[in-house]
């Protein structure tokens, strides 16, 4: 009995000493993986609610502020321009100072900017508010995927990121439905207030998280092999699989980002739905099909691990090949019911690309560069994607009509599928950190 007590005491002493010698070991234990997943899931949900809610009541804003489609589309482009520009410097700071700190700062900033948009009386003020939302969200999105993934074993990351990224379609859906409903009942200004303020309650829990890689990054920064700044950014683009994942996501983001802004208005103009009805219809479609598709993409890519050469890219490429023609056909139909069914099925397949390509980025980048890798990915996909597509679609809509403008945007589907399928050959060489 004495011997077992002495042994336990010795083990405890060794554990305490190990914690003093290796603070990273303590911080890993401090964060429960499923608590991290749950907390960041809800924060990411608010991220996409606040990002997409405005698009449900965009026709009301256009009417009150006297905006053309091109100017209305530029509100989304301003958000994306600041979002992608801020992501790289903030990612570098997050690695050095701790990711939870910057995630908390970002949540507070975008929540206040969303609520503050309610006070806009002219285009320039609303433009500035949306730019503020973009800066805030960049603080969070650059750091959160790698933070979640690193709390789980490699074999679970596809599924875990699938669960985490379900917040994209689910948050967008809630934003459409809640934004449209509140705006229809109380006006678009109250919609901004009601959807912006709840995020402030989750700032403190984020700040209390500890970063298991903070000590590791500081040690690496002092060593001879430390790589940072512009070189760290450029080195990422020497990895073919990383480039392919980024370009594929950028092409799909061009289309889906443009759709996210303009499809509610398309429903409003084509079938005479009010903003509440259009938001509810698109939101319900995105909530069910998008959420299930995102989860299915993560689960399927994990299931295919070991069964095919590059499961992440196979799932991403094939899902776009199936979903894209259905989206094009939905835009061409003139009956609401048939178009809605095709939009639903299309969303299910198109959202399957999200978690596999994010998991691929984790697999092909070394741990201390993952925050920069996701920030660089954010920068490129939005620079080539939804930073420009809403304005381009709005510009084309003013001249050719909204239906034709959306059909032109669908050309991005071709590039998305081609980039994913082209990466199958290089993934085996690049996946050194899975």
What does this structure look like?
There is one protein chain. This protein is mostly helical and 434 residues long. It has a single domain (30-209, 227-430), classed as MFS general substrate transporter like domains (Growth Hormone, Chain: A). It is built from 24 helices and no strands. It is globular and about 50 Å long. The two termini are 44 Å apart.
Strand content: under 5%
Terminus-to-terminus distance = 44 Å
Q: What string, H for helix and E for strand, traces the elements in order?
A: HHHHHHHHHHHHHHHHHHHHHHHH
- Major sheet size, sense and barrel closure: none
Helical content class: over 70%
List segments where confidence is low: pLDDT < 50 over at least 5 consecutive residues. 1-29, 223-227
The rough form would be described as globular
Radius of gyration: 22 Å
Number of separate helices: 24
Give the beta-strand count: 0
Q: Architecture, CATH level 2? A: Up-down Bundle
What's the CATH topology label? Growth Hormone, Chain: A
- Structural class given helices, strands, pairing? mainly alpha
How many structurally independent domains?
1
Estimate the mean pLDDT confidence.
82
CATH top level label: Mainly Alpha
The CATH H-level homologous superfamily? MFS general substrate transporter like domains
What is the subunit arrangement here? Answer: single chain
């Amino acid at each position: 009995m004495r011997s077992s007590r002495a042994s336990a005491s010795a083990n405890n002493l060794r554990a305490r000493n190990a914690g003093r010698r290796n603070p990273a070991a303590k911080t890993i234990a401090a964060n429960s993986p499923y608590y991290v997943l749950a907390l960041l899931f809800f924060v990411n949900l608010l991220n996409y609610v606040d990002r997409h809610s405005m698009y449900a009541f965009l026709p009301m804003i256009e009417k009150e502020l006297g905006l053309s489609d091109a100017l209305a589309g530029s509100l989304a482009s301003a958000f994306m321009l600041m979002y992608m520009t801020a992501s790289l410097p903030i990612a570098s700071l997050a690695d050095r100072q701790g990711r939870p700190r910057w995630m908390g700062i970002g949540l507070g900033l975008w929540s206040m900017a969303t609520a503050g948009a309610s006070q806009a009386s002219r285009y320039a003020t609303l433009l500035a508010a949306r730019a503020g939302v973009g800066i805030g969200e960049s603080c969070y999105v650059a750091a959160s995927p790698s933070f979640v993934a690193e709390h789980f074993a490699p074999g679970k990351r596809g599924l875990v990121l699938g669960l985490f990224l379900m917040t994209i379609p689910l948050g967008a859906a809630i934003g459409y439905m809640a934004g449209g409903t509140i705006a229809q009942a109380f006006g678009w200004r109250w919609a901004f207030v009601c959807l912006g303020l709840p995020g402030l309650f989750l700032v403190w829990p984020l700040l209390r998280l500890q970063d298991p890689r903070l000590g590791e990054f500081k040690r690496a920064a002092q060593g001879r092999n430390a790589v940072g700044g512009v070189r760290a950014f450029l080195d990422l683009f020497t990895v073919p699989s990383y480039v392919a994942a980024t370009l594929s996501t950028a092409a799909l983001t061009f289309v889906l980002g443009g759709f996210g802004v303009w499809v509610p208005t398309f429903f409003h103009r084509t079938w005479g739905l009010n903003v509440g009805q259009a938001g509810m219809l698109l939101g319900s479609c995105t909530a069910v099909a998008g959420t299930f598709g995102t989860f299915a993409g993560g689960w399927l890519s994990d299931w295919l691990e070991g069964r095919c050469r590059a499961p992440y890219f196979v799932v991403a490429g094939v899902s776009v090949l199936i979903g894209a023609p259905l989206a094009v056909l939905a835009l061409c139909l003139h009956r609401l019911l048939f178009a809605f069914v095709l939009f639903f099925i299309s969303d299910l397949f198109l959202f399957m690309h999200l978690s596999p390509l994010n998991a691929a980025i984790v697999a092909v980048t070394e741990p201390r560069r993952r925050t920069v890798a996701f920030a660089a990915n954010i920068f490129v996909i939005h620079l080539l994607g939804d930073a420009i597509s809403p304005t381009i679609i709005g510009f084309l809509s003013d001249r050719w009509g909204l239906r034709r403008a959306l059909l032109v945007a669908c050309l991005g589907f071709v590039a998305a599928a081609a980039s994913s399928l082209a990466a199958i050959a290089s993934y085996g060489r690049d996946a050194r950190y899975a």
